[in-house]
Every structure is written in structure tokens, then in C-alpha cells.
Amino acid sequence: MMSNGFGFRPEDPDDESGSDSSRNSGESSSAGASASDSSSNGSGNGSGNGSGFDINQVFEQMRAMGIPTPELPDHVKDQLNALTAMAQGMLSGAQNSDGSPFHLPVNVIRDISRRTLAESGERPIGHLDNDAMKGALQLAALWLDEVTALPSSQNSGQNSGQNSGQNSGQVSEQNAASRSEWINYSIDGWQSFTTPLVEGIAEAMERMIGSNSGDQLFGENIFGGESTEGNPFAQFLPNLNISQMMAGFMGTMIRTQLGRSIGKFATTVTSAHDAAIPLSGSNRSFLIPENVKAWGEGLGIDEREVEIYLALREVAAARLFAATPWLQGYLHELVSRYGKGINIDVESMQRQAEDALSRGDIDPTDPASMQNAIAQGIFTPEESEAQRTALAQLELILALIEGWIDLIVVKAAGERLPSLIRLQETQRRRRATQSPTQQLFASLIGLEVSPRTIRECANFWNLVTERLSAEERDRLWEDPYALPTLEEISDPENFLKGRTVPDDLSGLMGN
């Protein structure tokens, strides 16, 4: 199911600046990580924007001079810092190393994620935590050996130094990890998935600015008239690229929303692969004890059952992603296809902006009102047929992943987990409301994977398992073209009749 609109959802009402006590509660547990972030960012002020500008410091100086300052939510402060860095870079003629008009620096995203996490806090990992998680993961691996042909993903930490990006090796070789460690483990993957959207916005802005409608919107009127004589901005005009500025503004919003989303996800994800998409090249398996415990609270189910169930999901996902090296690139390509199709209807945008201003929905002096306006779809680009196709394919592959994991976990658990049905139902409810992947894709590209599609994919895998051996079933993951289409999902029998399972296992079963 695809909801209408690329764009941004409004922040939760309670997601403002947060109380001082809530922020302070997380500072002690992540102080070391925050310090390392500051050093890696190359910024000594802690803002993480690399510009030397921090709105918090500016406000402190203003208050010291007796000047009142506005109460801004943290996400707005993040955007002001990032926008200042972007403007300084453009005015100085600085360019990104990849030549792109705007990119998503992972250091900044991580810094925003850490500060968002600090609002909730985290507790350190102890030896007892690691022993409990290790036992659950080892048992899960043994049970999964009985029901899937996909090999172990070498959970022992042998691959932990193979992460892509500069976060390689930051997650310890343990079976239990903290919330901050999950951020380090996954952040490169999240950043990679959102970069095509920023690039698509930049290209759409360039096309729009180059058109007649773009000239009318951003050309002679952007500084109040054709003449620059006596204009205080005139000295900057030769260096200003309006398309870059607008793309940078939208990119900054994506970056800050992404960072805050990851920080929020860190308080609920239970394991390395809980998001059910490949976010790291290491394919390590670990559980997050603090979140595992919270997942099972109030269920009246033995903690050990909860740990084993979540370990089964974690190990199943890790094996699937280790056996399908094509999957990350395939998902990235689908997001890229959507990004390349972004097209901005200037006339529609002008009408919506004028209507919003007349209703008082936008206050030009209030950055928060601008974000909320965009979040509600005021500046939503048109969606093309190619984009709708890309979203449908993305929804299908995400549902196939979830459906396969659900099936494998049920087959592995069998009658060993007395509370399996209740655990499954809890997982389904949680997936509908707290799935990191669904929340992020819904807010960024308007994609919502419907429970019905996931059920259909689970039924598909069930029937395939009845007709084929585990080896034949799992060979379907060898190539994206071996998987069913949306039409074939609802007719597994016809799919099996028309599809020959490849005999060569070499690509899927390891070297």
C-alpha cells in the first residue's frame, strides 16, 4: 500500500526539545560515544555540523547579553545548524568531493541520532546480558539449521571489521549490544538508502529552476526585483546557486529527520537486523538486551521465550542477508528509481503555499511552521507512473523478506515455544506501529507495506515450503528474478508450474 506523497510527516507532539531531566538521564550512558562522535566530526563545539556554528551557543550568548531567545525544538535547531553549514559552503565556493550539489554526511546524521537517543538514555551492557543473548542466539542457530538451507552468517564476530564506511569495527564482537552500538552498526546503511532521494530532489530543483516557471518563482523576485543595486545580498549573488540552495534545504530536512528517526529507532529495535533490511556488510548478529526486555514487558511470557523468539528472527534475517549479496543493491536501485522520478509542480506548489499562508499555516518567521507545512504535503512533488512501479516493487520485496522470516521462525520454533502464537501476534502489532523500515519509508517516500501484502507473502512461502524442499525454496533467493511478482504472490501454484528452480546452488550456499 502506498500512501500519497514524498515528504515529511509532522514530528510527534511530544517530540519537542524534551525536558532537561530526560536529556540528562541519557548523557552519562552515552558520554563516551558522544565524545568520540565529536572527534570524528572534526568539530569541537559538539554541534556536529562541521561549520563552527551552533545555534545553542548563539542563544547562550544572546541570553548572556539579556536578549530573549525563542524556544525551538531540537529538530529545528539541527536544521538551522545544517542549513548554516550548507550556506557557508556555497558562499565560499566549496564543493563536495563527489561533485553532488548536496550530500548526507554520515557524521552529522550520527551526531543527531546520538543526541536524540540521549533524550531517552540507555543502560550499559554487562557480562550477564552478553551471556544471556549469546545463549539465545546459539540456540536459535541450532534450531534454524533444521529448517533452512541458508548457511550460518558467522555470528562470532569474525566479520565485524568488514563494515562499509568509517564505522567499521565500532560494534564490539559480542552478542549483546547497546543502543548506541546499533546506531554505529546501521547508520551507513540508512544513509545509503536516503542519498538517492536527496540527489533526486537536487536534479528536480535544477530542472525546475531552469524552466520558465522556475525563473518566475526563484529568478527576478528572489531578492525583490531585477536590480541588485543597493541590495545587501548583491555581493553574494554571483556565488549563489538557487537550485543548490533549495535542494540543500530539502536535503537538510531529510538529514535531520533521518538522524532523529534513527535515534528513536534505537530505543525500540531489538537486534542488529530488526529493521528487516540489510544495513551493514558485516551481517553480525546481536541482540539489544534493554530493548528485548522492553519488547516483552506486560506480555506475561517468560523472558527466556522472548529472548529465543527474537533471536530466531535475528539469526534468520542475518542468514538471509548474508546469502543474498544482491539484495542491498536491489533495494538501493528501487529507491534510486523513485528519486530519479521526482518532479516538482511549481504551479501546484505556489498554489498550496499561497493557500497555506492565507490560512496562517505558515509563519515566515517560524522555522517549525515551515517544516510542519512541508510535512503535511504542501510542497509534495508529483508522483509518476515509474515511481509508483518502483514503490510497488519495493513493497513486495520488503513483504517477501518479512514473510520468509515469519515462516522460518515458526518452522524452527515448532512446539518448543509454548507462547509462540502470542509472540507472533505481538510482533505483527509491533510491525504495524513501530517497524523502523516502514516508518522511515512512509515518511520519506510515502510507502507503507500493508499487513495484507505481508500475509500474502507468508502464505506464499508456506505453500512453497509444502511443495518444495528447504533447499529448493531457499534457492529462490539466489536472484531477484527468481522471486515471484505481485500477481504471482496470490497464485503460488501457477508460480511453481511456470518457474524452474535453478540447479546451481554455488551462488547461494557459500563457497
Strand share of the residues? Answer: under 5%
Radius of gyration: 24 Å
Helical amount among residues, as a percent range?
Answer: 55-70%
The low-confidence runs, each spanning 5 or more residues with pLDDT under 50, are 1-51, 89-99, 155-172, 214-228, 230-239, 507-511
Alpha-beta content class: mainly alpha
Biggest beta sheet attributes: none
| Helix and strand run | HHHHHHHHHHHHHHHHHHHHH
What is the overall number of helices? 21
Shape: globular
Task: Report the average pLDDT across residues.
Answer: 74
Distance between the termini: 38 Å
Total number of strands: 0
Number of separate domains: 1
Task: Tell me what you see in this structure.
By secondary structure, this protein is mainly α. Helices cover about 60% and strands about 0% of the residues. The chain has helices at about 20-25, 30-40, 55-65, 75-90, 105-120, 125-145, 180-210, 210-220, 240-265, 290-295, 305-325, 325-340, 345-360, 365-375, 385-415, 420-435, 435-445, 450-465, 470-475, 485-490, 490-500. α4 (about 75-90) runs antiparallel to α9 (about 240-265), α6 crosses α15 (about 385-415) and α12 (about 325-340) packs antiparallel against α15. Residues about 1-50, about 90-100, about 155-170, about 215-230, about 230-240 and about 505-510 have low confidence and may be disordered.
